[in-house]
Write a structure and sequence with these properties.
419 residues; 39% helix; transmembrane helix; globular; disordered N terminus; eleven-stranded mixed sheet; alpha/beta; single chain; STL-like; transmembrane; membrane
Length: 419
């Protein structure tokens, strides 16, 4: 008996040391990053040999600055990847005279002629970018992006910006509907629900729009805080300037954008109770709430932060983008708001286990990512490239994204200067 007790005590000590090690491994990055920032004055040039080598790669972008037939034809642009033949969601945008539409070809896309013929409309407002077009217009960017990844949308963003976009509707082929852009532009101020008091690093926007679920949260929200009521504070009515908004996230009915953990245990469809007349929901400054690439309206002041990283799965890429973008929104006084349901997602609720595996980084790292962003929140010299270098050092992205973000930044500067 004594031997068994002794073994149990030894096992207990071992388990205690393992627990302490895991906890310390999560805490250490903050001290490391603060010391790093102090020593390098937020230069963030990573010290690893691989990143040093990446700095020698030229970031000059061979952008073919051409004035296309769509140049300055529209200030409202929509961007979508051509996963298949045109869906009803794509047709809605194509036949709406308010919008120009850029369709980015991907691995399963049909040819230009087939797609546009099936769409039934091929006027000047519709642009289909096949692989050759993408490589000619944005060569280093295009060749770096893997096939079958939502990061290929980055090419569509740059094309829209190059052609005079002031608003970009970033949408998915399965999301039917679009925000009423004319109604938004007619208002100098927007009525919003905003936090009355208190603060938390996270804000869960979904529950405010009413749904028959005990808990609901957007994909990318840290699971550790799903039950935390302080992420769902009391809200009061207020107003903000329309011009202060960088991103409008439209919530989807029927199959809202939630993670696989939620989808494993729920029946569909799921519809929010809020109607179109319901106020927008303002994400508080210095709080974070993930948003997606499926139904978001971006304004010009936020364009430079649209870049989708390519070294993580498509289920993670837009979440990482949303958190990084909010870091800069907080610093620059740009607002993120969630709109009442204005789209319907009609995507078969399948492949949940595959999505679960693809979302693993979200479950494991999203809380830590927010803590790292908060560490640098009041450092004024942090750039987009700097921040992604830090994320590479903390294993949120791979090395190719460090270089990719530099190419994006240079590309963005080039296309912005061209109009």
């Amino acid at each position: 008996m004594f031997k068994f007790v002794r073994i149990d005590i030894m096992f207990g000590f071992a388990l205690l040391w393992i627990t302490i090690y895991i906890l310390l491994s999560q805490v250490t990055p903050y001290y490391e990053l603060q010391e790093y920032a102090h020593q390098h004055d937020i230069s963030f040039i990573a010290s690893s040999e691989r990143v040093q080598k990446s700095q020698d790669i030229s970031v000059k972008q061979n952008i073919n600055i051409v004035q296309s037939e769509t140049s300055h034809l529209c200030k409202y642009w929509a961007v979508v990847i051509a996963i298949s033949l045109p869906t009803h969601a794509v047709r809605q945008i194509a036949y709406d005279n308010n919008w120009c539409l850029v369709i980015v070809a991907d691995i399963n896309s049909p040819s230009n002629d087939t797609y546009l013929k099936t769409l039934g409309y091929s006027g000047r407002r519709i642009v289909f970018l096949n692989y050759d077009d993408q490589n000619i217009l944005f060569s280093p960017l295009s060749t770096a992006i893997p096939l079958g990844h939502i990061a290929r949308k980055n090419i569509g963003y740059l094309f829209a910006i190059q052609n005079g976009a002031e608003f970009i509707w970033d949408f998915d082929y399965s999301n039917e509907g679009v925000l009423d852009i004319n109604s938004i532009n007619m208002q100098n101020n927007i009525v919003v629900l905003q936090r009355c008091r208190g603060h938390h690093k996270l804000f869960n926007s979904y529950p405010y729009f009413g749904v028959d679920e005990t808990y609901i949260w957007p994909r990318g929200f840290p699971l550790e805080f799903v039950r935390d009521t302080s992420t769902r504070p009391n809200l009061c009515r207020g107003t903000i300037s329309t011009k202060s908004v960088g991103v409008f996230q439209a919530i989807a009915n029927q199959e809202p954008d939630v993670d696989a953990c939620f989808r494993f245990t729920r029946e569909y469809p799921i519809n929010f109770e809020a109607k179109q007349t319901f106020p927008f929901c303002l994400v508080p400054r210095y709080s974070y709430c993930p948003f997606n690439e499926r139904a978001t309206l971006w304004t010009k002041q936020a364009f430079q932060y649209m870049v989708l990283p390519l070294s993580v799965s498509s289920r993670v890429s837009d979440v990482w983008r949303s958190y990084v973008a909010q870091f800069f929104f907080h610093r620059e006084g740009i607002n993120l708001i969630f709109s009442p349901p204005s789209v319907v997602q009609k995507k078969e609720n399948q492949h949940i286990f595959e999505d679960f595996k693809a979302e693993m980084d979200i479950y494991k790292k999203s809380n830590l990512l927010i803590d790292i962003l908060q560490t640098f929140q009041f450092q004024p010299n942090v750039t987009l490239e700097n921040l992604y270098e830090v994320l590479y050092r903390r294993d949120f992205i791979s090395l190719e994204d460090v270089q990719f973000i530099r190419i994006w930044s240079q590309s963005y500067r080039d296309v912005s200067a061209s109009y």
